[in-house]
């Protein structure tokens, strides 16, 4: 492999911050063969996410979600990882920066440290891992799966450095370690420094810092976490008892109510409080009562509304719409008292709780502001990075990009999306590398185990609480050890942690294992990681079988540990029996077509096409209408007041005139075939609908959603009733009409958050606030009522919500069971609704009724495309991503990516970010010459083949043919691996590798064996 | 005897839909009976009649093949072939005195975790009512 010496040129990107965002950016760049320097102030990468117990909405343990990514990033040859490092100067300009990096002393020689933990044991004051809940130790490793796998020492807290140095068996402690400086030439910078958590000690009335039973949500995560200070045992910090009543208080430090609080909404606290409440209910059911005190429940993300519904209906989480005034402990009482006002009573209520969790928001800390200053970028009034209105990751300094929390408060999937977007933008400043041939990547020698008797190693994960709380892992390992052919069986904790993976690797070599069974999570998500472990240990990667103990056992039978344990034994037994029949296989490779097909010419499709074309790829952009722009053509202004039409016209112009983009109008996709990396898509084009085929390696689906127009509220029957989109156009085109309005009523959640469209449409609250402010610009005297269920102006949109309230817009909440009633009154509209504060019915006569109708999936089009491309959708008709947290723009089908509202409702800026992310993900594939197709292909035994032609007829792809020797031949490079031929072959002459008959039959018989426990 | 009868059911699940849906049921903590044992296959079209019959011969009380929704098969029509094979296997079963209802073809998509749990529950209840696979009483080890 030939690449220019990275140390001599600017062919690199500096990524600042090793949280999930920075890691994602680094990985996307590295996979696209761009060199990266990844720095972090801390001694290991991982950021805030490594502190979480579980993540919503899957309630996964975080460590196992992120640790594969961490190990991956420390392994990649393109990434230079520099912990304990900060930028101290950045000079030059885009494409040719010079960065000065300063690295603090670690006092540990990483090349010697074995992470044995001896120093930590001898100075046993716990670790610097649990924020606010533990003491700080002289040595600290932030979390058990830390990368790099080594400790660091805080010399200022060490009283006897000599003794510390002496205790290290590897002599890795270097007392005279010094701060070092280095100079790097780089092409672009990506800032992903994250945000810090608000410290509620500033608020006197909540007793935080004075009463141990008042904790932050992050501390609650640590208490619930298996790697936390209590090993996952839930207890009140004051006396160690198990709490019976827990209260969550939302918006602590956000939405500007308390001292020192910020005015914006931190965006993710509603979801993490829900998650903590659900996880608590999952573990303790009715023995703990979980109450959430909130103002608006802001579950606006993809499928988050369903999660909210589930928390209420399935888990019995209690919701109190109220802002508590204070939390305190009455003299001599064991419990805390929370005082709050509620909507239905005018007096103050009091209630007692064992534990009070403050859902604290996010702020930008002083160190990050300093960093922004060093890099010379502009911050917005809240201290976050100022980025472009239609350029969501570009900062004020060309060549410097920002993503994640530092851009605005956001959750993990959105951080991932922005991080990929930043990778896309940053890579444009580097020269395009030559395509890399995948097979060159591999250089392992494999041990031939064909003639060996099976020596199976069984490794069982506890996955923290995920498996360990339900399945008794040590007993299961003991059971496995007695099975025939098993040479070694042990539990491995978090099997996917670096530590456990290297333990497994060593065990394979040490015990001469020739087959491996892993009991853990789904092979869908983790098979590739463990296959890598086998390869590194010199075993063929197909000598592995995964027993799905988590997703299909522990999680399903939470309430029946006995059944879960019995099933776990059966699954392990079956995996052992099946892996015996496994044998070494070789992967097949196929060259990649480096052209791109983008379906959908809205903002997302155009942006993705443009970014890819700018970086040298040929793009076909298929649009079903005769005009580019999609739904954005109907929008005139953003909430922030930016001109959408000017932006769209410019984008359209750039796309139409780009030499490498071919726009195909009036295109209807009709068929699709081929293999990963080499697809052919047929479409009918133009008014004559003539047929045309495009060959491409990558497909980006950006087909959008539909603005909804439901019946009801006299929409379409009365001139004064319109949608927010109609109003947006009217305000722009006929302001004189708007000026004449005395009274306007808006109704939120029309056609969203209801059974036929259960999710939140995300954009309607901001649209309502935007139009209210614009109407008031025309006529400040207009009376505006906004009838809402929860105002979801997340992030900095909260500023505009506040502004609307200041300007006199009246916000009235309604219950879905008691919706407003609308009737015509001549040219006017009468709206009757119940005011929850006054507790009585109110009638308003309005000149205009604006319905916030939101989005609905373009069911017809996504259904057609899903059928043609064989890709999955959600139950409400949006495209389904491969992994909601870690791969939010990837389909499970290789080479397929999604962007824009076809994925879920989102605003223009968010669509642009996702489009750039899909371009970055596409580039990771397009930078290679060929693609690994795996080994699951059909093989014919020529001795048994009778050339009966059944396979020739059965194959859905027409691959088998009768060769010159008179028997059926199947080209592995063309075989898709479905196994239909193998199932049909009457002579059983065909076997599908990885899924051979003897493997399946041994699974059948072992799963049916009546087990004696 | 019927009181404590716990059926054992084999589910052949397509990797692209039913197996993914089963994982999703897990991540949503949707409970379904532990009686169902899942075998992952690349496509429901890979499931051979012999696999099904062997399952009954080895004592399964019920078997189902779970493939993608019709028209959505990742491999064009593997699920249609699977449905045909299931129908054929049912006839074979009837001819040797095993109720055909013990075998089913179901279709679902990757996003349907709820439906996966629902199907597992429904089939388990159905088989529970039907009682044990008759073959379990006839084929006893000689010794």
Describe the structure.
The complex is a heterodimer of chains A (1013) and B (143). Chain A is α/β, with parallel strands linked by helices. Chain A folds into seven domains: 1-104 and 179-195 and 364-434, 3-Layer(bba) Sandwich (FAD/NAD(P)-binding domain), CATH 3.50.50; 105-178, Alpha-Beta Plaits, CATH 3.30.70.20; 196-363, 3-Layer(bba) Sandwich (FAD/NAD(P)-binding domain), CATH 3.50.50; 465-579, no CATH class; 591-704 and 858-926, FAD/NAD(P)-binding domain; 708-854, FAD/NAD(P)-binding domain (3-Layer(bba) Sandwich); 938-992, 2-Layer Sandwich (Alpha-Beta Plaits). Chain A has 26 helices and 50 strands. Chain A has a five-stranded parallel sheet. In chain A, strands 13-20-14-15-16 form a five-stranded parallel sheet. In chain A, helix 1 crosses helix 9 (412-427). A four-stranded parallel sheet of chain B has the order 2-1-3-4, with helices on both faces. In chain B, strand 1 (9-14), helix 1 (18-27) and strand 2 (36-41) form a beta-alpha-beta unit. Chain B is α/β, with parallel strands linked by helices and 143 residues long. Chain B has five helices and four strands, in the order βαβαβαβαα. The interface between A and B is large, with 60 and 53 residues.
Itemize the secondary structure elements and their pairings.
The complex is a heterodimer of chains A (1013) and B (143).
Chain A: E1 12-16, H1 20-31, E2 35-39, E3 54-55, E4 60-61, H2 62-75, E5 79-82, E6 85-93, E7 96-103, H3 118-122, E8 139-140, E9 152-153, H4 161-166, E10 180-186, E11 188-191, E12 196-197, E13 214-216, H5 217-224, E14 245-252, H6 269-284, E15 289-294, H7 304-313, E16 318-321, E17 324-328, E18 336-342, E19 345-353, E20 355-360, E21 362-363, H8 366-375, E22 400-402, H9 412-427, E23 456-460, H10 465-468, H11 473-481, E24 486-491, H12 498-510, E25 515-520, H13 523-536, E26 544-548, H14 550-554, H15 561-579, E27 589-591, E28 596-599, H16 603-614, E29 619-622, H17 644-657, E30 661-664, E31 667-675, E32 678-685, E33 690-696, E34 698-701, E35 705-707, E36 721-723, H18 724-733, H19 735-739, E37 743-747, H20 764-778, E38 783-788, H21 797-806, E39 810-813, E40 821-825, E41 828-835, E42 840-846, E43 848-851, E44 855-857, H22 859-869, E45 896-898, H23 908-926, E46 930-932, E47 938-940, H24 950-954, E48 961-962, E49 968-969, H25 980-984, E50 990-992, H26 997-1008
Parallel strand pairs in A: 1-2, 1-11, 2-5, 11-22, 13-20, 14-15, 14-20, 15-16, 23-24, 23-25, 25-26, 28-29, 28-34, 29-30, 34-45, 36-43, 37-38, 37-43, 38-39
Antiparallel strand pairs in A: 3-4, 6-7, 7-10, 8-9, 12-21, 17-18, 18-19, 27-46, 31-32, 32-33, 35-44, 40-41, 41-42, 47-50, 48-49
Helix pairs in contact in A: 1-2, 1-9, 1-23, 5-6, 6-7, 9-23, 12-13, 15-26, 16-17, 16-23, 18-20, 20-21
Chain B: E1 9-14, H1 18-27, E2 36-41, H2 49-57, E3 62-67, H3 78-95, E4 103-107, H4 113-130, H5 135-138
Parallel strand pairs in B: 1-2, 1-3, 3-4
């Amino acid at each position: 492999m030939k690449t220019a010496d990275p140390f001599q040129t600017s062919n690199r990107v500096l990524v600042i911050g090793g949280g999930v965002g920075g890691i994602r950016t680094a990985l996307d760049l590295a996979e696209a063969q761009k060199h990266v320097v990844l720095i972090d102030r801390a001694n290991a990468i991982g950021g805030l996410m490594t502190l979480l117990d579980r993540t919503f909405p899957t309630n996964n343990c975080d460590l196992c979600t992120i640790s594969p990514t961490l190990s991956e990033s420390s392994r990649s040859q393109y990434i230079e990882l520099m912990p304990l490092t900060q930028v101290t100067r950045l000079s030059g300009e885009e494409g040719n920066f010079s960065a000065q990096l300063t690295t603090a002393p670690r006092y540990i020689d990483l090349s010697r440290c074995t992470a044995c933990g001896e120093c930590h044991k001898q100075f046993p004051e716990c670790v610097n891992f649990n924020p606010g809940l533990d003491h700080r130790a002289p040595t600290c490793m932030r979390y058990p799966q830390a990368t790099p796998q080594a400790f660091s020492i805080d010399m200022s807290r060490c009283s006897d450095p000599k003794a510390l140095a002496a205790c290290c068996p590897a002599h890795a402690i270097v007392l005279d370690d010094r701060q070092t400086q280095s100079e790097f030439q780089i092409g672009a910078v990506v800032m992903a420094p994250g945000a810090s958590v608000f410290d509620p000690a500033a608020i006197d009335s909540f007793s935080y810092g004075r009463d141990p039973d008042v904790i932050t949500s992050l501390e609650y995560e640590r208490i619930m976490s298996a790697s936390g200070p209590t090993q996952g045992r839930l207890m009140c910090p004051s006396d160690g008892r198990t709490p019976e009543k827990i209260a969550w208080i939302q918006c602590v430090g956000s939405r500007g109510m308390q001292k020192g609080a910020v005015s914006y909404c931190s965006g993710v606290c509603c979801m993490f409080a829900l998650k903590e409440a659900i996880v608590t209910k999952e573990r303790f059911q009715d023995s703990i009562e979980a109450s959430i005190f909130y103002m608006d429940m802001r579950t606006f993300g993809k499928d988050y509304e369903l999660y909210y519904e589930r928390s209420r209906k399935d888990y019995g989480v209690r919701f109190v719409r109220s802002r508590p005034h204070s939390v305190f402990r009455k003299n001599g009482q064991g419990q805390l008292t929370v005082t709050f006002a509620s909507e239905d009573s005018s007096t103050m209520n009091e209630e007692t709780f064992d534990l009070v969790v403050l859902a604290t928001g996010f702020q930008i800390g002083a160190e990050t502001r300093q960093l922004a200053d060093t890099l010379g970028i502009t911050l917005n009034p809240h201290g976050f990075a100022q980025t472009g209105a239609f350029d969501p990751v570009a900062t004020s300094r060309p060549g410097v990009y920002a993503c994640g929390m530092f851009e605005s408060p956001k959750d993990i999937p959105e951080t991932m999306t922005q991080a990929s977007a930043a990778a896309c933008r940053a890579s444009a400043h580097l020269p395009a590398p030559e395509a890399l041939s995948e097979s060159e990547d591999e250089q392992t020698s494999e041990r031939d185990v064909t003639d060996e008797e099976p020596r199976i190693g069984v490794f069982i994960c506890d996955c923290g609480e995920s498996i360990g709380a339900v399945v008794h892992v040590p007993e299961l390992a003991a059971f496995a050890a007695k099975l025939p052919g098993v040479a070694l069986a042990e539990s491995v904790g978090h099997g996917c942690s670096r530590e456990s993976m290297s333990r497994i690797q060593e065990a394979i070599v040490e015990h001469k294992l020739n087959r491996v069974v892993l009991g853990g999570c789904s092979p869908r998500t983790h098979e590739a990681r463990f296959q890598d472990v086998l390869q590194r240990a010199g075993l063929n990667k197909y000598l592995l079988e995964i027993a799905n103990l988590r997703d299909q056992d522990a999680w399903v039978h939470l309430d029946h540990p006995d059944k879960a344990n019995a099933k776990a034994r059966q699954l392990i037994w079956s995996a052992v029996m099946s892996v015996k029949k496994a044998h070494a296989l070789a992967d097949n490779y196929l060259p990649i077509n480096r052209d791109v097909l983008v379906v959908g010419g809205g903002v997302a499709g155009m942006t993705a096409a443009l970014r890819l074309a700018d970086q040298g790829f040929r793009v076909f952009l298929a649009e079903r209408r005769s005009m580019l722009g999609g739904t954005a053509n109907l929008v005139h202004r953003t909430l922030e007041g930016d001109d959408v039409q000017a932006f769209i016209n410019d984008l359209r112009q750039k796309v139409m005139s780009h030499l490498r983009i071919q726009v195909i109008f009036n295109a209807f996709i009709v068929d699709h075939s081929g293999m990963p990396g080499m697809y052919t898509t047929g479409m009918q084009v133009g008014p004559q609908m003539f047929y045309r085929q495009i060959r491409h390696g990558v497909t980006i689906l950006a087909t959008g959603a539909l603005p909804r127009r439901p019946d009801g509220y006299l929409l379409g029957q009365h001139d004064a009733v319109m949608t927010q989109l109609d109003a947006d156009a009217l305000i722009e085109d006929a302001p004189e009409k708007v000026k004449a309005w005395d009274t306007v009523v808006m109704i939120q959640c029309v056609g969203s958050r209801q059974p036929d469209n259960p999710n939140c449409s995300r954009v309607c609250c901001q649209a309502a606030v935007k139009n209210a402010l614009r109407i008031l610009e025309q006529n400040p005297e207009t009376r505006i009522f906004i009838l809402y269920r929860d105002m979801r102006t997340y992030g900095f949109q909260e500023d505009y919500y506040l502004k609307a309230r200041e300007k006199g817009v009246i916000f009235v909440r309604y219950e879905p069971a008691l919706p407003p009633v609308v009737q015509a009154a001549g040219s006017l509209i009468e709206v009757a609704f119940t005011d929850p504060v006054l507790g009585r019915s109110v009638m308003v006569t309005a000149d205009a009724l604006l319905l916030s109708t939101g989005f609905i999936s373009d069911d017809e089009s996504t259904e057609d495309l899903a059928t043609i491309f064989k890709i999955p959708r959600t139950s409400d008709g949006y495209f389904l991503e491969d992994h909601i947290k870690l791969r939010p723009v990837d389909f499970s089908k290789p080479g397929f990516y999604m962007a824009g509202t076809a994925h879920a409702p989102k605003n223009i800026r968010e669509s642009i970010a996702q489009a750039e992310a899909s371009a970055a993900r596409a580039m990771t594939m397009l930078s290679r010459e060929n693609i690994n197709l795996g080994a699951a292909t059909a093989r014919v035994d020529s001795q048994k083949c009778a050339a009966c032609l059944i396979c020739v007829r059965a194959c859905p792809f027409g691959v088998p043919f009768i060769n010159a020797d008179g028997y059926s031949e199947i080209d592995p490079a063309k075989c898709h691996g479905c196994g239909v031929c193998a199932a049909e072959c009457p002579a059983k002459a065909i076997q599908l590798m990885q899924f051979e008959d003897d493997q399946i039959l041994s699974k059948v018989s072992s799963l049916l064996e009546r087990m004696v426990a | 005897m019927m009181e404590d009868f716990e059926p054992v059911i084999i589910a052949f699940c397509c990797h692209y839909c039913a197996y993914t849906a089963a994982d999703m049921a897990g991540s949503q903590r949707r409970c379904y009976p532990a009686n169902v044992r899942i075998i992952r296959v690349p496509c429901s079209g890979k499931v051979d009649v012999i696999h099904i019959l062997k399952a009954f011969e080895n004592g399964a009380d019920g078997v189902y093949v779970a493939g993608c929704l019709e028209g959505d098969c990742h491999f064009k029509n593997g699920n249609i072939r699977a449905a045909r094979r299931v129908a054929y296997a049912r006839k074979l079963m009837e001819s040797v005195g095993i109720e055909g209802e013990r075998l089913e073809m179901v279709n679902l998509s990757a996003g349907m975790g709820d439906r996966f749990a629902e199907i597992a529950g429904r089939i388990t209840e159905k088989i529970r009512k039907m009682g044990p696979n008759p073959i379990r009483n006839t084929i006893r080890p000689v010794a």
